[in-house]
TrEMBL record:
Residue ranges annotated for the Methyltransferase domain, each copy included: 54-146
Signal peptide per UniProt: none
Descriptive protein name: Methyltransferase domain-containing protein
Lineage summary: Bacteria, Bacillati, Actinomycetota, Actinomycetes, Micromonosporales
An example Gene Ontology biological process: methylation
Length: 258
């Protein structure tokens, strides 16, 4: 897969800087553990079926590097050059080619058996129009019969009592995290307070637009994709009304009406 591509206008996504990129792997260490990562890689490798895969928002290669080690050719699109620089410490451009650009409009050459987007990252696109374009961009890159996969949380709206402005998602000795959500615009901000070794506290925030599973299905339909599977996690647990996350799979039809 050549690394030549078309990169277009930057989206409304937050742009991660060099300092954030350098700290990313350590700050997200829990997402790199075998019990978290292996089921995701297993799931994606099965769907790729030996064909090439494209990761939107490839980041530092948390998923792409072990997936490529399984023999799946992986390419990526990533908005942040500093994140790509961190990826290059693990894999060369020949091993995992990456184009710097946004995942709603940037294109890479070739067709893929699998396009995937993990760890809630579609929410980084902060308008509905951009999220629809992300689905269309996935469909644009898929070979007939290929699949688009996203991993996404289910908004915890039911946990909001009247008048409350935020809901916690992580409370631990080292980290306090909570989301503020706007019910009208579906805009949100994740707030992170991290206790450092020297006793100080570092604050960080990231902005997003939350999406409901049914809204994802409509976006997929607009992109010409058909639903194939929805489970609660990478292990394949059933998706229910109590699920707090989902892994959803849509397929590009083999032909019109297929």
């Amino acid at each position: 897969m050549a690394a030549i591509a078309q990169a277009r206008a930057v989206t409304s996504s937050d742009l991660w800087d060099e300092d954030t990129a350098r700290r990313y792997d350590d700050a997200s260490a829990g997402m790199f553990t075998p019990e978290v990562l292996d089921p995701a890689v297993d799931f994606l490798a099965r769907l790729a079926g030996g064909g090439p895969a494209l990761e939107f928002a490839i980041g530092t290669g948390r998923v792409a590097v072990p997936l490529a080690a399984r023999g799946v050719p992986v390419a990526g699109i990533e908005l942040s050059q500093p994140m790509v620089d961190q990826l290059r410490r693990k894999a060369s451009a020949a091993e995992i080619p990456v184009v710097v650009g946004d995942m709603a409009t940037t294109t890479v050459p070739g067709e893929f058996s699998l396009v995937y987007l993990v760890f809630n990252t579609i929410g980084n696109l902060r308008t509905q129009d951009e999220q629809v374009e992300c689905f269309r961009n996935a469909a644009r890159h898929l070979a007939p019969g290929g699949r688009f996969v996203i991993e996404l949380w289910v908004p915890g709206i039911r946990r909001f009592p009247p008048g409350q402005a935020a809901v916690p998602f992580d409370v631990s000795d080292r980290h306090l995290g909570f989301d503020t959500l706007d019910m009208v615009t579906q805009q949100g901000t994740s707030h992170h307070y991290t206790h450092l070794a020297d006793g100080s506290v570092r604050y960080g925030a990231s902005n997003f637009r939350y999406i409901w599973p049914a809204e994802c299905d409509l976006m997929a339909r607009l992109a010409g994709l058909v639903p194939e599977q929805r489970v609660a996690d990478w292990h394949g647990a059933p998706f229910t009304s109590e699920s707090e996350s989902h892994v959803s799979v849509w397929r590009k039809p083999l032909a019109a009406g297929a």
